[in-house]
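Section 4.2 – Deliverable D4.2 (structural model, holo form)

The reporting period included a commitment to supply a predicted holo structure for the target in complex with zinc ion. Inputs used:
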Amino acid sequence: MTVETIDVALGDRSYKITLGANILDTIGELCQSLGLSGTVAVVSNSTVAPLYYDRVRVSLQAAGFRPLLIELPDGESYKNSATLNLIYDGLIEGGLDRGSFLIALGGGVIGDMAGYAAATYLRGIPFVQVPTTLLSQVDSSVGGKTGINHERGKNLIGAFYQPKAVLIDVATLDTLPEREYLSGLGEIIKYGAVLDGEFFTFLEENAGPLLDRDKAALIRAVACSCAIKARVVSEDEREGGVRAVLNYGHTLGHAVETLTGYGAFLHGEAVAIGMIQAARISREFGFCNDDDCARIEALVTRLGLPRQLPVYPADSYLEVLSHDKKVRQSGLLFICNAGIGHYKMERVRDIGALLRVCGIQ
Ligand SMILES: NC(=O)c1ccc[n+]([C@@H]2O[C@H](COP(=O)([O-])OP(=O)(O)OC[C@H]3O[C@@H](n4cnc5c(N)ncnc54)[C@H](O)[C@@H]3O)[C@@H](O)[C@H]2O)c1
Ligand SMILES: O=C(O)C(=O)C[C@@H](O)[C@H](O)[C@H](O)COP(=O)(O)O
Ligand SMILES: [Zn+2]
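Output (structure tokens):
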């Protein structure tokens, strides 16, 4: 069994990402090595808990912990304050104190909500990320963005709160439904498109093996993605500057998720649509060319992701975009493609003009 580690360097908040196949049963040892002890609440959902909680529980008990399960309903539409309250209820009923900790076992929805609960319960208890979707393994479990949605905007309530460790077992992806797997590929494309041209070429050349979930291609894609994200987060933990590049494709992507009520499109699908439009907008600004746009669209298509921006009136898009976290008085910070593997950030006052490039009048 080959196990890789990737460091997320953040001073006294530094941690390791441990990545391998069939390593879920090492969670107990990992928590021991972090100096954690006592009661641990494992936050999961009604899909993931029946698949993986038992293995996690056995490993934790063998290492001397007292695990309890907090099982939430499944879905992006539950990433809200009502579900967050269910976590707090479980933590209070389970008697978790400041010597306890929490494990997020599931996809990005569980990771974001459990992380926010850990950040706020008793003003903060430690937590460990055990991501079980491709998207959460390559993106959401790393970097400490935690939070919930509001009906008027994605992730509007949240905190930067780093985990103590991330344990990625790619074997858990064996049970992941195809559409969810493809959604994870959407965020992987993002890293290549704006941060690493060689990685983008690797994705173009390995689309087949990746679609077949070939373990070698998959482990390389997950490891590269985590390394890229770790580097960006280490440079700019709280998105004062370069970290905003990780929002490539998200301005329109988040708007699509919000307008469609957090159900019609998966996050990675919405990001894929947003990346294609962001490339077209970037070309309009003169930052990238036809070939860059064509390569992004071709890879999105090859990896089975949607391309079409859903049509809503411009006013609906404008209302949602006005709540984007990158909006300031000086305009919306738009993340542009500046040629494959490169980015440029541009403040845009006239958001309507961006929408017109996308065919939204
Ligand atoms: N914090 C961040 O930096 C960050 C980054 C990217 C995305 N996100 C957030 O992550 C969320 C999307 O995460 P996601 O794509 O993981 O969705 P998700 O958490 O909804 O999981 C997708 C589906 O897969 C199921 N599932 C999870 N693991 C499984 C497994 N191993 N086998 C079978 N089924 C499994 C889940 O129950 C769910 O039905 C969005 O809310 C997005 O905003 C956050
Ligand atoms: O980690 C980041 O920074 C990201 O932007 C990663 C994104 O893929 C992710 O979807 C994140 O949740 C978006 O954050 P938000 O601050 O734009 O809500
Ligand atoms: Zn994202």
